[in-house]
Specification:
This protein is mainly α and 325 residues long. The chain folds into two domains: 19-162, no CATH class; 202-220 and 246-323, no CATH class. It is built from eleven helices and two strands. It has a two-stranded antiparallel ribbon. Strand 1 and strand 2 (56-61) form a beta hairpin. Helix 4 crosses helix 5 and helix 10 (264-280) packs antiparallel against helix 11 (289-323). The protein is elongated, with a radius of gyration of 27 Å. It starts with 23 loop residues before the first helix and ends with a helix. The relative contact order is 0.09.
């Protein structure tokens, strides 16, 4: 019995024969509409074929990531015979059919040209090109995430070189009890979803930024006492007059309260630098939802920090003016 699933957590189909469950590429976990060539029968996750039209078959895979990997392998087979441009790949894809509309659809959707060479080692270009092809084949918006597509691309590449499909999750990612309770292909409860072949997603970065915020807030709220002579930690001397708490703006009250007063802009700048570095080295894709969302959030946090400073200054000057009367 096939074990239908997503390898990293995401959409998959378990009803390849049910036409009412969606377009053939979606219900067969075969985004590229690979047609069941002999080499596919030994591919990881291969289940069989379904006849879509008389004489035309489509392969069925247990997971959409396997289907994407098979699509990458087909592109590699094309590449070995000098078929590597957008125009040539799609034309060969169609056999004797006129696929000029297909080419124009992909060109318009990606910004590539018909003569652009597809680099099988460029994940972002493959994600862009593949997503456009998959959208055309499905005839509707795609249910798979970018992470699923990227994992399939990288899985296909690794399988081609090692004959082994990469593990979808680290054995140490969850306790044995939690792992056994989690559905196949999903993260155990309470654990972060695995990164897709090195691609950092929202589930990886947001907890890190959250921990950084908590750590800085804790340090701001509980400053360490200075060590006394001899190595002992001196207790803070009681102040003659307890200073008044800082004035809080509406933004301060919403984001961290007194603990983060004066730190929001710094945190935003640090967060933006981290995101920019990860994007520059290719760990976090600039075109992925994770990259775009985190960039906007870090910029917005910096701006809010600046606005809150102005608000606090305005309130403080108002208080001084009121007390001087």
């Amino acid at each position: 019995m096939p074990n239908y699933r997503s390898l990293i957590g995401g959409f998959f189909s378990s009803t390849p024969m049910d036409k009412s469950s969606g377009p053939v590429t979606i219900r067969t976990n075969n985004p590229g509409a690979i047609n069941g060539a002999p080499w596919e029968t030994t591919y990881p996750g291969y289940v069989g074929t379904v006849e879509t039209t008389p004489g035309n078959k489509s392969a069925i895979f247990e997971a959409p990531e396997y289907g994407v990997g098979a699509w990458w392998t087909l592109l590699r087979n094309y590449n070995l015979t000098n078929t590597s441009t957008v125009q040539d790949i799609i034309t060969r894809y169609g056999g004797t059919q006129d696929y000029s509309a297909y080419v124009q659809f992909v060109v318009k959707r990606t910004g590539l040209t018909p003569g652009t060479t597809i680099d099988l080692n460029d994940d972002q270009q493959l994600l862009q090109f593949g997503s456009a092809m998959f959208r055309y084949e499905a005839g509707r918006d795609l249910p798979w995430s970018n992470d699923q597509i990227l994992f399939g691309i990288r899985g296909g590449r690794e399988f081609a070189s090692t004959k082994l499909w990469p593990a979808s999750a680290s054995p140490a990612a969850a306790s044995p009890a939690a792992a056994s309770a989690a559905p196949p292909g999903t993260a155990a409860p309470g654990t972060a979803a695995p990164a897709s072949g090195g691609q950092v997603s929202d589930s990886d970065l947001l907890p890190l930024l959250q921990k950084a915020l908590i750590a800085l807030a804790t340090n701001a709220a509980n400053p360490q006492a200075a060590p006394a002579p001899g190595g002992a930690v001196a207790s803070p001397a009681p102040a003659a007059n307890t200073p008044a708490p800082p004035v809080l703006s509406a933004i301060d009250k919403l984001f961290g309260g007194q603990a983060l007063v004066g730190n929001k802009t710094t945190l935003g700048v640090i967060g933006y630098v981290i995101v920019a570095i990860l994007q520059a080295v290719g760990v976090l894709g600039t075109a992925t939802p994770a990259g775009q969302i985190l960039s906007v959030l870090t910029i917005a946090f910096s701006v809010l920090g600046g606005v809150s400073k102005i608000d606090r200054m305005t309130q403080s000057l108002g208080s001084i003016a009121a007390n001087s009367k």
